[in-house]
Write a structure and sequence with these properties.
The complex is a heterodimer of chains A (771) and B (468). By secondary structure, chain A is mainly α. In chain A, the strands form 3 sheets. Chain A has a two-stranded antiparallel ribbon with strand order 1-2. A two-stranded antiparallel sheet of chain A has the order 3-4. In chain A, a hairpin with a 7-residue loop joins strand 3 and strand 4. The radius of gyration of chain A is 29 Å and the shape is globular. The two termini of chain A are 56 Å apart. By secondary structure, chain B is of the alpha/beta class. Chain B has 2 domains: 85 residues, no CATH class; 371 residues, Alkaline Phosphatase, subunit A (3-Layer(aba) Sandwich), CATH 3.40.720.10. In chain B, the strands form 4 sheets. In chain B, strands 1, 4, 5, 6, 7, 8, 11, 12 and 13 form a 9-stranded mixed sheet that branches. In chain B, helix 10 runs antiparallel to helix 11. The chains are: A mainly alpha (771), B alpha/beta (468). The interface between A and B is large, with 93 and 90 residues.
Chain lengths: 771, 468
């Protein structure tokens, strides 16, 4: 039986890659326990000699126990690998004797690492799990790191990149250059201006620039042209939309309650609150506090109460109140702390310092809140509108287009007792707990001093203050990382929702802290809005790099951890719609308001337990930005999940970017996108461009924000020519293709080829990609 | 391993830096490389061409379906012995002395092989002689999300390629008209969502293509009015030519995947409508699967679509069905899931056999973990208790694709919580599945971050016993 349990299974070749890249062995030649030895022991030994099992009494993950050894005596003798039983066993040629007993034996390199580490004194094993947490990088206070000094090229210069001394534009670049130099890698050249403006537009407002805007920027020779453009975009009302949608992913925003019943709910006012707050560059602490506890602020305004919609977004169904509270705890953990609190629902967290009891203390904050409807005009709700408990009373299965009165969901403090649920099970209530803050290391000590435990128990307001406390390093680190993620396609910490103990310090840990300290100044007790950090990032040379792949460094730049180039990634579901509609020229620029119902295929709402309706919106509302589309959680508009929009079930911190044939079918054949191609063709044909070549140039400029290459021009010209011949003989088809967008006095056979060409360009990878 | 990929990467890798002008004609000539995944030669003689993995999300209770333990009934309510308690890990149970719970369902021997199967799955019992039941599957994580990833990607974290994507990476596809790796869903979504059929670090074109779980399985198959097949073909040629130019400039592999997607999309337009036209099946076939309304999404419909997919040369079909996570209410929940899945699963095996497809198709039935012999108490009154997660030994069944039928492989102890014969770790299962496809799990590698990765990491042993 023992051998079966010893069976070596938890695979890890972490050490192998560490060896290859030379990390973990510090400059002094010292072997780093956390980076090298612990992963090795965790993979090969902890399963039987770790926290869960101690075969033969040996436990290797805690210092005293590891040094004391097991039933058979000492296993590690610091400084003397030759006398260490551990080395003897892993090198034993006797199969009955060697460790691990099954699976491959340790490689000579692995044994060598262990030997060296023991000879160096076997240092670094944490005293206990708690002490390991104490030394975990993400839990350390944020200290604004010193910006690396300017340096001269350590890497080989080449003609394409003659100088690195002139490269940095701001502090970010100095951090990036420092690591690039260390790895003897050059940064990527700056992207062309056409790419830069499109990148800035898509990143900051989620809309493409018009060709007029592109050419104006291209020709703007003022030294601060780029910075002016950045400021202009940060001031655009569409900035709020773009960044609100990122936040709504975290807030699991949707227009229905979820579960099988999936009833409609009215909560768009919360979505608009987020847009407005971001546009106003609301200080981040205020932004968080109002969402978690706006109702508890002194003389709470209507807006502050609307903000509490953040946690009203949780799914709701009769009888599942408990689950929605669990979701609120977990969302809080993932969004602000970057911790997987969910594990502590049933047991103390296996790795992170969060106990089962602490989970239910967090639970208590949200257990003491109920969800109610509130009229946006501040008038009291008619009693019939009042929800019985926490369940909105809407029985209507059709979403209200013009709800009267307009309402939204808000939180209301309603004290009630909280029990620990053993194993996370409601039938198993344990002791009573009060709302309380996790003793997560030093975090929040200031906060608890500033707000000593009062006679009454803590509220969500105290939770918000704790999250935002000067000595809580997680909220700022997690937020800064997430902002970086949006601008580069991936975070400096790749596991953007898990900053726990299992997550190693990123290569750019100092840069992350620099960014975080920009959000959370040690000197200033308040937080700024996030626009200033956005400005810092997008004006860096690092951000302005080309996104062309770097096969030269592929082996040392996994996940682009060196940030040696920009990211090139497909746009989100909502933005793909916005791009197409913009090209067609009829994207509505209207901000906010109730969610809308653009065209969708028949049959999407079939087979629901609770019927739902979808009456296509009229007029301008049919052409609103993708983020305003009504979301039935159970049966969302098909183009949303198809392009990886979140399902609103739990907080989404990272969207997939899938790339599958059914997406191609939609981009080619979806009626809305075909309509966009028609409108685009009409714009081209109606323009002053007369020759085929001029029109093609205009088409590419409009859609891709750049001039076509000669090869592209030739390809499209050939397509137009062939299609002209096709439609010259098939008038019916030509009329169908042009449909109602046929410009007056234009021959259908002449128009149809332009619809085909427009559709081709709207289907290009580059069109739906931010480079 | 995959020559085309590497050549392309080298080619574009260089051109991305030097931006050497490449004649358009030579780009167009490379179409073959960028199209759907050409069939490739396996490492050894395969016994299966296709896989249908009927993935049962949440962990079906092997103790109530395939692994009868009369001892549990005899010792009902007694605590699990301390010695065993120490050797197993629960997901949720925290009780110091969890109590044994027998199965309320009757078991009987079936077929000539005499396999013991529960009354809950009479249809599966009827194919006892066509399947092989493996009772000592073992995994590493008690958490659904990570156990799903373990079973489907061989790694307990996000980011690794899935079994299906490894298979199509290794073998390409016989069908140039449909996604080589197609995913169908019914009931609850898998908890690790798309990562279960993702491509990880493999190029995107190897990822699974999910069909819709409600309404039409594939939308937008028809061309817009007035666009003929010829115009569509010319349009897609233009799109792919233009994308190829961009691929040359950026060196971004995503574009290669997009080119392949458009190629498959075009072919799907002609093939998929017929594929999904289940009315063409005989009323008898529909009845065999238990499909009342072919337009209505269900696991049964997905099983039938799965057969039609492999019939058309699709390499890997995965039908996800949930949810079997019966921590509570197992008395009502388990029969309900069996009702939805038993008949179609068995019908699929019979149907494949009848059409001569079973020899070439490996069918796998099972979830990411199993369930405990001890009861987990319910939080609601009047609801029967359930079972927690068990990872030391659980049951899956396999059929076709060279599997020697009628075997029951492996055994567990009297209480059903620990194996008494050799464990089949998930890695062993994965190695064995790849083996059936003619792929050597140790040779099917992909270089990433400076080292060769494989599905089975540094583990896995092909269980030849399965094939007799």
């Amino acid at each position: 039986m023992k051998s079966r349990l010893f069976k070596h299974r938890v695979g890890s070749t972490i050490t192998m890659s560490l060896l290859l890249f030379g990390h973990g062995t510090l400059a002094s030649g010292r072997i780093d326990y956390e980076r090298v030895i612990r992963p090795l022991l965790a993979a090969r030994c902890f399963r039987c000699h770790g926290p869960d099992k101690q075969e033969s009494g040996l436990r290797l993950d805690e210092r005293d126990r590891a040094l004391a050894g097991g039933d058979g005596g000492t296993s590690i003798v610091p400084g003397r690998s030759r006398d260490s039983e551990l080395i003897r066993r892993v090198t034993s040629v006797d199969e009955a004797d060697r460790m691990p007993p099954k699976g491959k034996r340790l490689s000579p390199q692995e044994v060598d690492l262990l030997r060296k580490w023991i000879d160096q004194g076997a240092k670094g094993i944490p005293k206990s799990r708690a002490s390991r947490a104490e030394s975990h990088w993400a839990f350390q206070p944020i200290r604004r790191p010193t910006v690396p000094p300017p340096r001269n090229a350590a890497w080989p210069r080449n003609a394409a990149w003659p100088s690195n001394a002139a490269w940095p534009r701001n502090a970010i670049d100095r951090f990036v250059l420092d690591k690039l130099d260390e790895h003897k890698v050059t940064p990527s050249p700056e992207a062309p201006r056409e790419t830069l403006i499109r990148r800035l537009y898509l990143d900051l407002i989620g809309l493409p620039p018009t060709w007029e805007e592109v050419s104006a920027f291209r020709d703007d020779r003022r030294p601060n042209a780029y910075e002016r453009l950045v400021d202009e975009l940060l001031a655009s009302p569409h900035y709020g939309e773009r960044w609100a949608r990122h936040w709504l992913d975290l807030a699991r925003y949707a227009d229905s309650s979820g579960y099988e019943s999936d009833k409609p709910r009215e909560i768009w006012a919360y979505r608009d609150w987020v847009i407005n707050a971001l546009n106003a560059d609301m200080p981040f602490d205020q932004f968080v506090t109002e969402q978690l506890a706006g109702d508890l602020l002194p003389i709470a305004t209507i807006d502050q109460r609307i903000a509490t919609g953040f946690h009203c977004n949780a799914m709701l169904d009769p009888g599942v109140r408990h689950e929605s509270i669990i979701d609120r705890v977990n969302t809080t953990g993932a969004v602000f702390l970057g911790l997987t609190t969910g594990c502590a629902q049933c047991h103390s967290h296996k790795t992170d310092p969060l106990t089962h009891r602490e989970f239910y203390q967090l639970y208590a904050f949200f257990n003491e809140a109920t969800i109610t409807e509130m009229r946006l005009d501040g008038e009291p709700l008619a009693s019939s509108h009042l929800a019985p408990r926490d369940e909105p009373s809407t029985q209507d299965t059709n979403p209200k287009l013009e709800p009267d009165p307009q309402t939204t969901l808000v939180m209301k403090q309603t004290p009630q007792p909280t029990h620990i649920f053993l194993r996370g099970d409601r039938a198993n209530p344990g002791e009573l707990v009060e709302a309380g803050l996790p003793a997560l290391l030093h975090v929040g000590r200031d906060a608890s001093q500033a707000h000593p435990t009062k006679e009454s128990s803590l509220t969500r307001l105290d939770l918000a203050r704790w999250l935002l406390a000067a000595d809580n390093p997680l909220t700022a680190r997690v937020t800064a990382n997430r902002i970086w993620q949006r601008f580069f396609g991936g975070g400096l910490v790749a596991t953007e929702a898990d900053f726990g103990i299992q997550t190693q310090e990123p290569l750019h840990g100092e840069l992350l802290d620099y960014l975080a300290s920009d959000l959370r100044s040690e000197k200033d007790p308040g937080w700024p809005g996030i626009k200033s950090l956005h400005r810092l990032i997008v004006t860096s040379a690092t951000y302005r790099q080309s996104s062309i792949a770097r096969p030269d460094i592929v082996n040392i730049n996994s996940d682009n951890r060196l940030v040696a180039h920009q990211g090139r990634f497909r746009m989100e579901a909502e933005i793909i719609r916005d791009l197409s509609l913009s090209a067609g020229g009829w994207l509505s620029s209207k901000l906010g308001g109730p969610s809308v119902f653009p065209h969708q295929a028949a049959g999407i709402l079939e087979n629901r337990a609770t019927p739902a309706s979808w009456t296509t919106s009229e007029g301008e509302d049919r052409y609103r930005r993708g983020m305003y589309t009504w979301v039935w959680r159970l049966t969302p508009h098909p183009n949303l999940p198809l392009f990886d929009a979140p399902d609103g079930v739990t907080a989404c911190t990272h969207r997939d970017r899938s790339n599958v044939p059914v997406q191609a079918l939609t981009l080619l054949n979806d009626p809305t996108l075909v309509e966009a191609a028609r409108s685009l063709a009409a714009r081209i044909v109606n323009s002053s461009a007369n020759s085929d070549a001029e029109r093609i140039v205009l088409l590419v400029q409009t859609c891709l924000s750049r001039d076509p290459t000669s090869q592209e021009l030739e390809l499209l010209r050939t397509l137009i020519g062939n299609q002209r011949r096709t439609f010259a003989t098939d008038h019916t088809a030509a009329a169908q293709v042009g449909s109602d967008k046929l410009p007056p006095e234009c021959d259908p056979g002449e128009f149809a080829p332009w619809v085909v060409a427009s559709r081709v360009v709207l289907n290009l990878d580059e069109f739906i990609t931010r480079e | 391993m995959n020559v085309t990929d590497q050549t392309r990467r080298q080619f574009f890798g260089t051109s991305a830096l030097s931006l050497a002008p490449v004649a358009l004609s030579s780009l167009l000539a490379s179409e073959q490389d960028d199209g759907p995944l050409p069939a490739q030669r396996p490492h050894h003689r395969p016994c299966a061409k296709s896989i249908i993995f009927l993935f049962q999300i949440g962990g079906p209770s092997q103790l109530d379906l395939f692994d009868p333990k009369p001892m549990l009934l005899r010792r009902e309510g007694e605590p699990l012995p301390e010695s065993m308690l120490k050797q197993i890990s629960f997901a949720q149970i925290q009780e110091k002395q969890p109590k044994l719970m027998g199965s309320p369902w009757k078991f009987a021997r079936h077929g000539e092989c005499g396999a013991t199967v529960s009354e809950l799955v009479p249809h599966t019992a009827s194919i006892a002689d066509q399947i092989t039941i493996a009772k000592t599957i073992k995994t590493d994580d008690t958490n659904h999300m990570f156990a799903e990833l373990m079973m489907n990607t061989g790694w307990r974290q996000f980011g690794r390629p899935s079994l299906g994507s490894w298979a199509v990476y290794g073998l390409g596809t016989e069908s140039q008209d449909l996604p080589a790796f197609t995913v169908l869903r019914s009931g609850m979504r898998p908890r690790s969502k798309g990562a279960n059929y993702g491509n990880g670090f493999l190029p995107s074109k190897y990822q699974g293509t999910p069909l819709r779980a409600s309404g039409d399985p594939i939308l937008n198959l028809a061309n817009p009015d007035g666009i003929s097949v010829d115009t569509q073909r010319q349009s897609i040629d233009a799109i792919n030519d233009l994308n190829r130019l961009r691929l040359q400039q950026t060196g971004d592999d995503e574009i290669a995947a997009r080119i392949a997607s458009y190629e498959v999309a075009f072919r799907m337009q002609s093939v998929a409508p017929e594929l999904l036209e289940l009315k063409n099946e005989t009323p008898q076939t529909l009845a065999d699967y238990g499909i009342d309304d072919p337009a209505k999404p269900s696991f049964a419909r997905n099983c039938l679509i799965a057969r039609r997919l492999v019939e058309r040369g699709v390499r890997f079909v995965q039908c996800f069905h949930g949810d079997w996570d019966h921590h509570t209410g197992i008395a009502s929940g388990l029969p309900q899931q069996c009702q939805l899945t038993d008949q179609p699963s068995a019908a699929l095996v019979k149907d494949l056999a009848q059409r001569g497809l079973l020899d070439d198709t490996l069918v796998i039935w099972g979830g990411e973990l199993g369930r405990t012999p001890v009861a987990q108490k319910s939080d609601k009154p009047n609801v029967a208790v359930g079972r927690d997660h068990q990872i030391e030994a659980f049951t899956m069944w396999l059929a076709g694709g060279g599997v020697k039928p009628g075997q029951t492989i492996g055994s567990t102890n009297d209480l059903g919580c620990l194996p008494t014969s050799e464990s089949w770790h998930v890695y062993d299962l994965q190695a064995t599945i790849l083996h059936a496809l003619g792929l050597d799990h140790e040779r099917l590698t992909y270089r990433y971050q400076g080292r060769d990765f494989r599905l089975t990491d540094i583990h896995g042993e092909v269980k030849r016993q399965l094939f007799g």
